[in-house]
Amino acid sequence: MGQRGEPRRVQAYDGELGAAVARAQQGDEAAFAVAYRLVQPGLLGYVRGLVGDDAEDVAADAWLEIARDLRRFKGDGAGFRGWTATIARHRALDHLRRQKVRPRPTALEQDVLDLPGPHSTHDQVLETLSTRAALTLVAALPRDQAEAVLLRVVVGLDGPSAARVLGKRPGAVRTATYRGLKRLARQLGADGVTDDGPRTLGEST
């Protein structure tokens, strides 16, 4: 199982993903297709949050690099998600440098926002968000908060993994995630949300 606070949906397939990656590294093309199927939805959502409508092209470039360097990867399913997110982020930032525009988060996929847990600020915000609302609200977040939310919610990384992708300390990513979700909560006017300090996504006190 994955780290505490990870979405259960991601935890559930990490074992399958790790096994598929191991087979793919031995040249099993069908296993690589399985790994792609498990990772691509979240990875594409994250890239879309950075580059908008160019996400498909940027993600395709990232997968070319992933396939090329696959044999050099070492780790489990959760590690593979972090590794692919790092590659995708580099490709997205390269794209943005070429386009000379700032990253802007866009629509989140509603089906990856269904996180379980107690009735905390995080859970109530995520349950309230629709795709249209996410497009407007997440785009208004500061970049560090938006990207932290994307990695934690869309890609499903735990705090330390998201921190490695961003090159930041886990505490900084945890705080950015918390602040981003709290800001969304205020904008949504969520009723009865708790305010008991930063914690990893989905954690209860």
Automatic annotation (TrEMBL):
<dbReference type="InterPro" id="IPR007627">
    <property type="entry name" value="RNA_pol_sigma70_r2"/>
</dbReference>
<dbReference type="InterPro" id="IPR014284">
    <property type="entry name" value="RNA_pol_sigma-70_dom"/>
</dbReference>
<dbReference type="InterPro" id="IPR013249">
    <property type="entry name" value="RNA_pol_sigma70_r4_t2"/>
</dbReference>
<keyword id="KW-0805">Transcription regulation</keyword>
<comment type="similarity">
    <text>Belongs to the sigma-70 factor family. ECF subfamily.</text>
</comment>
<dbReference type="InterPro" id="IPR013324">
    <property type="entry name" value="RNA_pol_sigma_r3/r4-like"/>
</dbReference>
<feature type="domain" description="RNA polymerase sigma factor 70 region 4 type 2">
    <location>
        <begin position="133"/>
        <end position="184"/>
    </location>
</feature>
<dbReference type="InterPro" id="IPR013325">
    <property type="entry name" value="RNA_pol_sigma_r2"/>
</dbReference>
<keyword id="KW-0804">Transcription</keyword>
<keyword id="KW-0731">Sigma factor</keyword>
<dbReference type="InterPro" id="IPR036388">
    <property type="entry name" value="WH-like_DNA-bd_sf"/>
</dbReference>
<protein>
    <submittedName>
        <fullName>RNA polymerase sigma factor</fullName>
    </submittedName>
</protein>
<dbReference type="InterPro" id="IPR039425">
    <property type="entry name" value="RNA_pol_sigma-70-like"/>
</dbReference>
<feature type="domain" description="RNA polymerase sigma-70 region 2">
    <location>
        <begin position="36"/>
        <end position="100"/>
    </location>
</feature>
<dbReference type="Pfam" id="PF04542">
    <property type="entry name" value="Sigma70_r2"/>
</dbReference>
<dbReference type="Pfam" id="PF08281">
    <property type="entry name" value="Sigma70_r4_2"/>
</dbReference>
